[in-house]
# Entry
Amino acid sequence: MNKTSQRVERETLAGLQRLSRRGFLAAAVAAVAGGGMWKWLNDRPAVDGLASPFRKAMELNAGISRRIFRERALAPEFERSKAVSSFRRNGDIGLSEIRPADWRLQLVGVLNPASYAQYSGDVSSWTYGIIPSDTEAPNPDVDSPPKKPTMHEYDAKGAAVRMKPMEMPERAHADVPGLLLTMADVQNLPHVEMVTEFKCIEGWSEVVYWGGAHLRDFLAAYPPLNGGHNLSSGIPKYVGFETPDGQYYVGIERDVALHAQTLLAYELNGQPLTPDHGAPLRLVTPLKYGIKQLKQIGRIVYTDGRPHDYWHEQGYDYYAGL
# Structure
């Protein structure tokens, strides 16, 4: 190697070393700045369980989604052959195995509830029977393990589930008048079927074949206090849903409740729902992520106040729309 080549090599190496030092210093400065910014963001006052800058970002995204939303716009629908034969089970908060005869849908906020045969002066007094557990105590003389316990067996304690008192302004401990509806009342509504994509906020999705009734048909059959049968203007801003034990709860906006693809579903792949998927009745809408599509509805509430929402209280976006 001649002297010129050696000089060029030395200069190149020296230049690379300078660049490496600068890059390292720049990266270190960026890391410190980024760490400081992240700490500052997380130290901001919490709003609904989330640091305020992150909550504001979520609210901005939700506002954009609401402005884009069009009631007549439909999510893609598919041929039945595209639906999964075994829908993925995900999430069991609030689920219990309830005897079908013991289930009632508590409806609160309906117009003239006392005029219905299903009227109750206090819907919250209804209890839901629990299917007895098939759990067996371990037998020291047998080498096999005990049977698997049923869902939420330890919470149910072999008795019954009673929904927790609903938080109502100024009447938190008063009786809750409304209707106690049976599955027959829901199934008397026009039956519809839908094959749409179910999207989970965790990032997975599956095409699912549902059967049930339009929520808007339910609203027309059991209209709210201030609406009568004028669905376009009389429905309150929100519809709230809770499981029979009150452990899981969500709220959806009026436009979503009236949408043509929002169902009270009681069938999956042409068969009645199983306990894993929310038997006997669940909410289904391709406009929302799965965290909003509550399984095993125990109570529906018509309200102008935004209902409480389980995952929103854990820091997620309330709207949770697609």
